[in-house]
Design brief:
The complex is a heterodimer of chains A (about 400) and B (about 290). With about 400 residues, chain A is an alpha/beta fold. Chain A has two domains: about 30-150 and about 300-375, 3-Layer(aba) Sandwich (Rossmann fold); about 155-285 and about 375-390, Rossmann fold (3-Layer(aba) Sandwich), CATH 3.40.50. Chain A contains 13 helices and 14 strands. Chain A has helices at about 5-20, 25-30, 45-65, 85-100, 110-125, 155-165, 180-195, 215-225, 235-250, 265-270, 295-305, 315-335, 340-350, and strands at about 35-40, 75-80, 105, 130, 145-150, 170-175, 200-205, 230, 255, 280-285, 355, 360, 375-385, 390. In chain A, the strands form four sheets. In chain A, strands 2-1-3-4-5 form a five-stranded parallel β-sheet, with helices on both faces. Chain B has about 290 residues and is mainly α. Chain B has a single domain (about 1-120, about 140-275), classed as ABC transporter involved in vitamin B12 uptake, BtuC (Orthogonal Bundle), CATH 1.10.3470. Chain B has helices spanning about 1-30, 35-55, 60-80, 95-110, 135-160, 160-170, 175-180, 185-210, 215-230, 235-255, 260-275. The radius of gyration of chain B is 19 Å and the shape is globular. Chain B starts with a helix and ends in a 14-residue tail after the last helix. The chains are: A alpha/beta (about 400), B mainly alpha (about 290). The interface between A and B is medium-sized, with 22 and 26 residues.
């Protein structure tokens, strides 16, 4: 029987009216898994973070599904390895938002990829949760469906500055970076913050990370009267050279800076293990040993990991915890708000004091940066045990 | 300060000089400016760290294997990237073929070795209380390698028959071929020698530069500067140019620091080339009329 255009239009109108009036959806949709588009960097140069976060994410999703899912619906992670490449992240976005019809996007997990992918996810109007630090990734006007479950770069710098100026009570600081965009931006952002806190920035410079001899730089810092060195770089070779040169000069000022200072790659490049003393890197209060013990939430989480025989000695506790928190936050959102985009955003806009393992999250309609300042702390890099570090000396417990 | 400028400057300069010699040896044999010199330097460090740190070999065996790998890579470079473009050398296709090969190898290193710098072991165990430990071996090792290389090459080129054959090819390959010299075999041998010198630079300089895939670009460029300064094909010029570059770079590190040190190096490089385009040790090319 031929179908006229009028009949098709009439049918469409009835369907639309049924949807608008809350007509029950077909039973099959109620049993379909809830799809999360997931963009981790599991390979490539930035993959160590992604591998750690992935471990926590997979574990949380397995647990939610084992316990019956969300109102009977399983969570399906549709994972696309970005290979640490923004181009691949961008290609995966179209697949996840348009073809796979993901209810939410978790990631990308690295800022470089997130910078490229976020505008596209926002264009497709899919809610997005990510753990990247670059400040500009959150903008409620440009990206109203994007939420951050980690600190911003500004918070990270503020945490380090607070430690140097208010905890260690040091006022003369040398701030340096490599010549990358991250390094130069960090110095340009953090130096005015330090000055506003009353510190005197006695030396600042951008240095070629490949320079094999940093003694001239450190001599200049020393003669300028620096009481602390704050290097901003993710280059383990550069950071280890700073530690090695400081050690060879028998200069015992603290080095305070980014998380890579405490990475295994940096440790491997030290000429002597003691050159890692008095080096403090960014970390997060809930994932640090305080008085020899992890905070209760993290301790319970580690017990669970051990019980489930999840290996985390080769990664960092805060990476695994962050992956867990991301997945659990999305599961809780689906449970309370369903899978419609606007409902998800409306629910997340009201999250207040959500007790994650990695951090406590609060969002409002005006502020989608959810991590509290006071939970960004510094840790002793030479204290790594079971994926976690001791909180740096001087903080109150 | 002066001690640090001289010691570090000479050490880094020696590495640059060895890479410059690598460029020259390949250039003399083929008139091709092969951009695989930095790749060879990078591999010297990476392979050395792989053999010693990861596979647990002793330093001598690792050194010999690294030299062998350099020779093999030199030969592969000649066969894959140089020989096919020799017929149309005036089109400078070798820039693409040698650079593409070097980038391919660098990507393989990035994938299988990693993109983070990795440690290179101390090669010569020296008691820290002995007189020998006054100068760090990361300083004297590349300088020693540079001296041995330049003396060895001088002896090879001046005192041996095969060395004279190399010179004959470098001077006039058509005439040398007419005299019955096996040009292809001599060119392959030159590339093998260049390969060994390139990895020697990386191996002896790796305590300072670390085993890092990113060293390729740095060595490719800073190794080219002594060749341009010293004159293409002149090994002595490359040594003088390399050491001068190292000393100047280190002095700039102390005097201006940061990224301005690199700017100072480039500025002097441009000025020298403007004043003497043929290089400090090179002779101005005669124009045919």
């Amino acid at each position: 029987m031929p179908v006229s255009r009028r009949q098709v239009l009439a049918g469409s109108a009835v369907s639309a009216a049924a949807l608008a009036s809350g007509f029950p959806a077909p039973a099959i949709a109620q049993n379909e898994p809830i799809k999360i588009g997931y963009l981790p960097a599991l390979t490539g140069p930035s993959s160590s973070t992604g591998v750690g976060i992935n471990r926590g994410t997979q574990l949380a999703v397995e647990l939610v599904n084992k316990e019956g899912g969300i109102k009977g619906r399983k969570i399906e992670l549709i994972s696309r390895d970005t290979q640490s490449d923004p181009t691949k992240a961008v290609n995966a976005v179209a697949e996840l938002t348009q073809r796979a019809k993901a209810s939410m996007i978790w990631g990308p997990l690295n800022s470089g990829e997130a910078l490229a992918a976020t505008p596209l996810i926002a264009r497709d109007k899919v809610p997005m949760l990510h753990p990247c630090w670059v400040d500009s990734l959150i903008d409620v006007k440009k990206y109203p469906m994007s939420f951050r479950i980690a600190p911003t770069n500004t918070q990270v710098g503020k945490g380090a500055n607070h430690y140097v100026v208010n905890v260690l009570k040091l006022k003369k600081v040398a701030v340096i970076s490599d010549t990358t965009g991250y390094g130069t931006d960090s110095v340009n952002t953090y130096v005015p913050m330090l000055k506003a806190m009353g510190a005197e920035v006695v030396y600042t410079n951008h240095i070629d990370a490949a320079n094999p001899d940093l003694k001239p730089e450190l001599l200049r810092m020393q003669s300028a009267g620096a009481q602390a060195i704050m290097p901003w770089s993710v280059n383990a070779g550069f950071l280890s050279r700073i530690c090695n040169t400081r050690g060879a000069m028998n200069w015992d000022v603290p080095i305070v800076g980014q998380t890579t200072l405490g990475s295994g790659q940096t440790k491997a490049l030290l000429e002597k293990p003691e050159y890692w003393n008095k080096v403090y890197s960014n970390n997060f209060r809930n994932c640090c040993y305080i008085g020899g013990k992890l905070p209760p939430r993290a301790a319970e989480f580690v017990e669970r990991l051990k019980k489930d025989k999840v290996e985390f000695g080769d990664t960092l506790l805060w990476w695994v915890a962050l992956g867990w928190d991301g997945a659990m936050m999305m599961a809780e959102t689906f449970k309370n708000a369903g899978t419609k985009n606007d409902d998800i955003v409306a629910y997340m806009n009201k999250v207040k004091g959500w007790p994650g393992i990695y951090g406590t999250v609060t969002w409002t309609p005006e502020q989608h940066n959810g991590f509290p300042d006071q939970e960004v702390v510094m840790c002793e890099v030479n204290s790594l045990k079971d994926g976690a570090f001791n909180i740096a000396p001087g903080y109150s417990s | 300060m002066l001690q640090s400028i001289v010691s570090y400057g000479l050490a880094v300069g020696a590495v640059y000089a060895l890479i410059g010699i690598t460029y020259n040896v390949m250039f003399s044999a083929s008139r091709v400016f092969s951009f695989t010199a930095g790749m060879l330097g990078m591999l010297g460090g990476v392979l050395g760290a792989l053999f010693i740190n990861k596979l647990g070999m002793n330093a001598v065996l690792a050194f010999l294997l690294v030299l062998a790998a350099g020779a093999v890579l030199g030969v592969i470079t000649e066969i894959l990237t140089v020989r096919p473009v020799l017929k149309s050398i005036e089109q400078h296709l070798y820039v693409l073929s040698t650079l593409a090969f070097a980038l391919m190898i660098q990507q393989v290193v990035a994938i299988y070795w990693g993109t983070e710098a990795q440690p290179f072991p101390v090669l010569v165990p020296i008691d820290p209380n002995s007189a020998l430990s006054i100068i760090d071996q990361k300083i004297w090792l590349p300088v020693l390698a540079c001296i041995v290389t330049i003396v060895g090459l001088e002896l090879l080129y001046r005192r041996t028959l095969i060395g004279r054959a190399f010179l004959a090819i470098a001077e006039d390959s058509y005439a040398a071929r007419a005299l019955g010299l096996p040009e292809t075999q001599l060119r392959i041998a030159s590339y093998a020698i260049a390969g060994m010198i390139g990895v020697l630079a990386g191996f002896t300089g790796a305590q300072m530069l670390l085993a890092y895939f990113g060293n390729q670009a740095i060595l490719n460029f800073y190794g080219f500067v002594p060749v341009a300064l010293g004159g293409m094909g002149s090994n002595r010029g490359a040594v003088v140019g390399g050491l001068a570059l190292g000393l100047f770079q280190q002095a700039a590190n102390f005097l201006v620091g940061g990224i301005f040190a690199s700017v100072a190096v480039f500025a002097v490089f441009i000025v020298v080339l403007l004043l003497r385009p043929e290089g400090l040790a090179g002779a101005a090319a005669a124009r045919r009329v």
